[in-house]
Design goal:
The structure is a single chain. 41% of the residues lie in helices and 18% in strands. It is built from 16 helices and 13 strands.
């Protein structure tokens, strides 16, 4: 098992949110090894039926012999949280609550324990966790869900990712009960995966999927609330003006994205256009994950100018200068690549403008910093 980065403070009850398959249960089993733990698994249908009908039964199970109570996939029975709240108030027992969706909790006005439980997030494996075992080409093709690294053949990996995508649709979306007809949603999902990392055009997606744009907007919210992806907002100094510009949407894992857009059998080859896109997605995913783990409170955005010049990632860091990052998959970055960015660097007064690449060495070209992607991550999240 890989050593995971989240630093769980066990002085307090906590939530552990993240997509299924990221290793929430395995992490908690390792954290609570040797402790007296009551484990309630709501993916077990018998447990689910028992508590969905009578959530108060949890009161009868609690005793002082337990140090912790773990409730897996708590969003399946939101009413349990009212009882958890009361138990925390009365007893010294602490709770670890995992969830793969925040939507049902929000929709049903679930008791989120009013600060009595810390919040943690778990993502697929990062480059920091993989260390020397990281194979970039493998991740660009199959993502980094923990299970992928125990599979040996291409066929096994592809089959796992197809199954994951299908299980997600059945167990998460159908259970959310906000999609009346699954067929239009499936069309949307394939198109949304194809659009991962691109600026969203709700009207175009609606036309391609045969649904209205309001449904598209709602579907993207579902993906966000079930941790299957996240929005990258457009950059602007004015929050009001930012609201009228279009966001991008990124899927949480490159392998799942390929399963959803049906390109698992199309390998991502070095120096191709798809390789550049996947590398950009990979680096941005790394930043999002590490920001959550190291509690940096960074804010991320992108910029597209009127002249169609794009800065892939802009990072606002509390108490530190803003960083502007252009992501290039090349292994041989040269000075010609910076020329078109000189004017925008000046206009933005960008003191920290990085080109993140696969070059081997850190170097400067004019006032631009060219950095290998590993060094850039270390500099941001040391």
């Amino acid at each position: 098992m890989y050593k995971r980065l989240p630093k769980i403070l066990k002085s307090n009850s906590f939530f552990m949110f993240g997509p299924r398959g990221t290793g929430k249960t395995s992490l908690l089993k390792a954290e609570f090894l040797g402790k007296n733990v009551l484990w309630i698994d709501l993916l077990n249908e018998d447990e689910y039926r028992k508590f969905v009908v009578h959530p108060e039964q949890i009161d009868e199970l609690i005793s002082e012999k337990y140090d912790w109570v773990v409730i897996d996939e708590v969003q399946r029975v939101p009413a349990l949280l009212n009882h958890v709240h009361k138990i925390i108030e009365k007893n010294k027992i602490k709770f670890a609550l995992t969830g793969s969706s925040a939507r049902k909790l929000k929709r049903e006005g679930a008791n989120l324990l009013a600060g009595r439980a810390f919040e943690n997030k778990l993502h697929p494996l990062t480059s920091f966790e993989l260390g020397d075992k990281l194979n970039l080409e493998e991740i660009l093709n199959y993502g980094s869900l923990p299970k992928i690294f125990s599979l040996q053949t291409t066929e096994e990996k592809n089959q796992y990712l197809r199954s994951y995508a299908n299980i997600y649709i059945k167990s998460e979306i159908k259970e959310e009960q906000v999609v009346r007809k699954i067929e239009p949603f499936l069309k949307f999902l394939e198109i949304a995966a194809q659009m991962s990392g691109k600026i969203l055009n709700y009207s175009k997606i609606a036309n391609d999927a045969g649904i209205d744009s309001k449904a598209v907007e709602r579907y993207f919210e579902i993906l966000s609330d079930t941790f299957i992806g996240f929005f990258l907002e457009p950059f602007h100094e004015s929050v009001r003006k930012r609201q009228f510009q279009k966001s991008k949407f990124y899927f949480f894992d490159l392998g799942v994205k390929k399963a959803l857009d049906r390109t698992l059998t199309v390998p991502i080859i070095s120096q191709s256009y798809s390789y550049g896109e996947a590398f950009e997605n990979f680096f941005i995913l790394e930043c999002i994950r590490l920001n959550d783990y190291y509690l940096k409170d960074f804010k991320f955005s992108y910029l597209r100018t009127k002249d169609d010049l794009e800065i892939d990632l802009i990072i606002d860091r509390p108490g530190l200068p803003r960083v502007f990052i252009e992501i290039k998959s090349t292994k041989n970055f040269n000075s010609d690549d910076v020329s078109r960015y000189r004017l925008i660097k000046k206009d933005l007064k960008a003191k920290n403008f990085w080109f993140v690449t696969q070059d081997k060495n850190i170097r400067k070209i004019d006032d631009f910093l060219v950095m290998p992607w590993r060094d850039a991550l270390r500099k941001l999240f040391n």
